[in-house]
Amino acid sequence: MTWWKSALYDTCSLITLDKLLLERPTIERHFPSRILALEKSFSADQMRAETVKRMKKKVTIQELPSPTALATIYSSVSLSVALAEVDKLVCATAMHFGLSVVTGDRRLGRTLRDQGLRVTDMVSILRELVKTRKITQKGCVRLLKGLAKRHDLLLGKESPTWEDIENHRFPDR
DSSP letters of 19-30? Predict the structure, then answer.
């Protein structure tokens, strides 16, 4: 089992995973049956109702640290003011419980990495699935192009290539 199967998924990664599952339902077998996430990720200001309905069935809600622990973490770590409130909660929860995180936010990714936690994004997971022969290169590119049609530009491109995927390094570029 790869380490990201027991990681905490942020809101954007949950939304991307939902789109991946809509694009290619069989990819579900390569992800955990119960994904760790925060309840806050499912609020109306974070996720559409239809996405909530689909993803709630696949998620185990991770408890938050106590208010005292949150205050301690927030005072000891310099978090970017650009981070959304839910991402700050993801960061604090991961730090408190020593969880790995799947996120698409580079600022959050760098903060977690700098705190000694494992962090990755969905593109890196897809690349790993190709390298372990769970999916093909062609299938991976097709998935990312399908995500682009669903307005999820993981690589910032509407038509990514395998070279784009290979050259992708999260969270540093």
Answer: HHHHH-GGGGGG
Q: Which domain holds residue 54?
A: 3-120
52-61 tens-digit pLDDT: 999 999 999 9
For the stretch 29-32, contacts whose Cβ atoms lie closer than 8 Å and that sit 24 or more positions apart, written own/partner, are 30/129, 30/134, 30/135, 31/5, 32/5, 32/6
CA 47 to chain centre: 14
- Structure tokens given for 24: 């290619």
Full-prediction pTM beyond 0.70? yes
Residue with tokens 């050259």, as numbered in its chain: 167
CB atoms inside a 10 Å sphere around CB 61: 14
Q: Both 11 and 66 in a single domain? A: yes
Q: Is the dihedral of CA 154, 159, 161, 164 positive or negative?
A: negative
| Tokens at 55, concatenated | 């993803």
The overall average pLDDT reported for the chain is 91
14 with 95, same domain?
yes
**Model confidence pLDDT, tens digit, residues 36-86:** 999 999 988 889 999 999 999 999 999 999 999 999 999 998 888 888 889
Q: What's the residue count for the chain?
A: 173
Record the tokens describing residue 147, joined without a space: 């995500």
How many distinct structural domains can be found in the chain? 2
